[in-house]
Amino acid sequence: MKWLEKCSAKGLRRFQNVLIVSGIAFIPSVFMVDSLILKGFLSLFFLSNFWGFRKSEKLISRKTKQRRETLHNTQKIHSLHETCMKFIQHIEDVLVAKGYSIEKGNNPLIDDIYHELSNCQTVMDYVLFKNKLEFRMMYVANMPREKAQEKTQSQRAKKSASTSSALSQALYILGLPEGTRDMSVVKHAYKALVKKYHPDLNPSPEAGQKTVQLNLAYEQIQKFLKAS
After folding, report:
1. CA 6 from chain center: how many Å?
2. Distance CA 100, CA 108 (A)
C-alpha cells in the first residue's frame, strides 16, 4: 500500500474513519453467516482493517513529527536570516562611516555576501554564514578610516547601492529580471513558486527552507516598491 505513503496526515485520518465505519458495519454479519469460508473471509477483512489502521497510525505519527521539525527549522531559518541581514547592514554601515565604497564590484568584503546568503538552504548553512559574518564584522570594525571625500553625499549614494543590491538578489530568488518593478508580476511569480515549494504539497526536505526564502524575498521587494 505505497499510496498510503503519499497521503497527508488529514487524508490518513479520513482513511482510518472509513476503516472504523466499515469494520463496525460488518460486525453483525459474523454472527449471521453460517459458512466457515465466509467467516474466514470476514476474519481476513477485519485483520486487514486492523493492519491498515495501525499502518496509517504510524504514518500519521511520522508525518506529524516531520511537519513539526519542518516548522521548527523554518522558524529558525527565518530568525537566522533576519540576524544575518542585520549583520550585513551593520557591516555596510561601518564601511560607509569609514568612507569605503559598498557598490557592487568595488569592495570584496561586500560583493560576495548576498550571493552566499542566497545559497543558504539549511539551518547549518545559516549558522556557518552567521559565524562568518561575525568575524567579518570584527575585521571591518578594525579597518582604518578612508580619507573623507564628500562623505555626506557619497554615503547616501552608497546606501542606495546597498538597497539596490538586496533588491536584485530578492528578484533573483523569485526568478525575475533585475529591472522588474511591476508588483503584479512579482505576485504572480511569488504565488507560482510558493505553490510549487509549499511543505503541504512538496514533501522534499528543502521545500520549507525554499518557502522561507521566497517569503523573505517577496517582503523585501514589496517594501522597496512601496517606499519608491
Report:
1. 21
2. 11
What is the residue type of 185?
V
The dihedral of CA 142, 148, 153, 157: what is its sign? negative
pLDDT digits 0-9 by tens, 84-134: 889 888 888 888 887 777 766 666 667 778 778 888 888 888 888 888 888
Residue pair 36/62 in contact by the 8 Å Cβ criterion: no
Query: 122-172: per-residue pLDDT in tens?
Result: 888 888 888 888 888 888 887 777 644 444 445 454 455 455 677 788 888
151 C-beta neighbours (distance < 10 Å), count: 14
3 state DSSP class of 65: helix
Q: How far apart are CA 46 and CA 42, in angstroms?
A: 6
pTM for the structure as a whole? 0.43
Q: Is 227 helix (H, G, I), strand (E, B) or coil?
A: helix
Identify which of 120, 133, 129 has the alpha carbon closest to the alpha carbon of residue 91. 133
What CA–CA distance (Å, rounded) separates 88 from 79? Answer: 14
Residue 66 above 50 pLDDT?
yes
Calpha distance 56→49 (Å, rounded): 11
